[in-house]
Design goal:
- The complex is a heterodimer of chains A (63) and B (124).
- In chain A, 25% of the residues are buried.
- Chain A has a two-stranded antiparallel sheet with strand order 1-2.
- Chain A is globular and about 25 Å long.
- With 63 residues, chain A is mostly helical.
- Chain B is mainly α.
- Chain B contains 4 helices and no strands.
- In chain B, helix 1 runs antiparallel to helix 2, helix 2 packs across helix 4 and helix 3 packs antiparallel against helix 4.
- The longest helix of chain B is centred in the N-terminal third of the chain and has 29 residues.
- The chains are: A mainly alpha (63), B mainly alpha (124).
Chain lengths: 63, 124
């Protein structure tokens, strides 16, 4: 699964740590998400999308 | 895992140091080195987790739990074969403490290695 997390973080001026704290995960999880090494649960995908004010489909997409 | 490794480290360091005349012979040396290495790794992992907690991060989340569950499963399977191997070759060990202690330490090492492998291929 592909995502725009890194791009959206830069847009909103958020660090990986900031985003991790907002969605209650470890910073390592955000690192793995950005590298495409981990696919989030629906709940986490929803929470991350909410932080960016976008829908899940706008943040994440299947390869 | 961190706590159990630290406890094991303490017990086995005590047991091996008691046998001071044999400490640098054969298998005892390997076990001693393994204790030090695993103990050091456990110590630094514990320090890192404490630092993250103080910075306001959660210590466990969905990804870390998934890694723990997956690595636990595969490590358990590998350990079963390891103990079978130890059982088959039990006569090759100098004494029962070395056999059991070595087996326990190898189980910890298997779990550590499995965790590293699962982390590389974690996709949930």
């Amino acid at each position: 699964m592909d995502n725009r997390i890194k791009e959206l973080r830069a847009r909103d001026g958020l660090t990986q740590s900031d985003l991790a704290k907002k969605v209650d995960v470890r910073r390592e999880t955000i690192v793995f998400l950005e590298k495409g090494k981990y696919n989030p649960s629906l709940k986490l995908a929803h929470e991350i999308s909410k932080v960016f004010g976008m829908t899940i489909e706008e943040v994440f997409r299947l390869d | 895992m961190t706590t159990s490794i630290l406890i094991m480290l303490t017990i086995w360091a005590f047991v091996i140091l008691e046998k001071q005349t044999n400490i640098f012979k054969g298998l005892d040396l390997v076990i001693f080195i393994l204790i030090i290495v695993l103990g050091a790794i456990a110590f630094f992992v514990a320090l890192k987790k404490e630092k993250e907690e103080k910075q306001g991060f959660v210590t466990d989340d969905e990804m870390s739990l998934l890694i723990k569950y997956k690595s636990g499963y595969y490590a358990y399977l590998a350990s079963m074969y390891m103990w079978l191997f130890i059982f088959i070759f039990k006569d090759k060990f100098p004494d029962i403490e070395t056999m059991l202690g070595g087996g326990i330490l190898l189980s910890a090492l298997i779990l550590f290695i499995t965790k590293l492998v699962i982390k590389k291929h974690v996709n949930g």
